[in-house]
Amino acid sequence: MKKTFYAAALAISVSLASGTIFAATDADDFVEDASAKGVAEVEAGKLAQEKGTAADVKAFGAMMIKDHTAANEKLKAIADQKKLKVSTDAELLDKAKAMILDLRSAKSFDQAYANNQVKAHEATIEIFEDEVKNGDDAELKQFATSTLPTLKAHLEKAKELAKTHGGDAGQ
């Protein structure tokens, strides 16, 4: 139970904290922000698989696990090569604890997850677009450029989920 709470808190808080993460200003910042978002998406996807009730929410969660795990692995390989630090679960838990309460105001997990995914993907796209426009590292810019279409597709699907499940973030 405690592990599930921490996973839920981690996934939700990082995604909901989209307004508190500043735009990346250098390679280290981009790697840290992008990896934190990636970890959060995988954890939120796992939570959707476990707690979601609708088939489309579970399917979206599975897609988040698959796509963000792949992106996280690519980013980690680049970061390791450049001796840059990626975010880990433990570093994100403190942020998570304060934001878990946001779920309680939603009518259902599915609605909360769908709204969360819209906000999270909007914030992640902003980070990646900033890296494409302002980044100094060619390899990270290429990673951001090649990942953006997938993130934008996720955002569109998240908006559809929000609309289907009575959320307000997709409007």
Describe the structure.
- This protein is an all-alpha fold.
- It has one domain: Ferritin.
- It is 77% helix and 0% strand.
- It is built from six helices and no strands.
- It has helices at residues 2-16, 27-51, 55-82, 89-99, 109-134, 138-164.
- α2 (27-51) packs antiparallel against α3.
- The longest helix has 28 residues, at 55-82.
- The chain is elongated and about 45 Å long.
- It starts with a helix and ends in a 7-residue tail after the last helix.
- Mean pLDDT is 81; it is low at 16-24.
Key terms for this structure?
171 residues; mainly alpha; Ferritin; 6 helices; 77% helix; 0% strand
Present the secondary structure layout.
Elements (H helix, E strand, L loop, with lengths): L1 H15 L10 H25 L3 H28 L6 H11 L9 H26 L3 H27 L7
Helix pairs in contact: 1-2, 1-4, 1-5, 2-3, 2-5, 3-6, 5-6
**Considering DSSP H and I runs of 4 or more, what fraction of the residues is helical?**
over 70%
Mean pLDDT, to the nearest integer, reads 81
Q: What's the total number of strands? A: 0
Query: What's the CATH class label?
Result: Mainly Alpha
N- to C-terminal distance: 34 Å
User: What are the segments in which pLDDT stays under 50 over at least 5 consecutive residues?
Assistant: 16-24
The CATH superfamily bears the name Ferritin, core subunit, four-helix bundle
* CATH structural architecture: Up-down Bundle
Number of domains: 1
Number of helices: 6
Radius of gyration: 15 Å
Order of H and E elements: HHHHHH
Shape type: elongated
> Strand-residue fraction?
under 5%
CATH topology: Ferritin
Main pleated-sheet profile: none
The assigned structural class equals mainly alpha
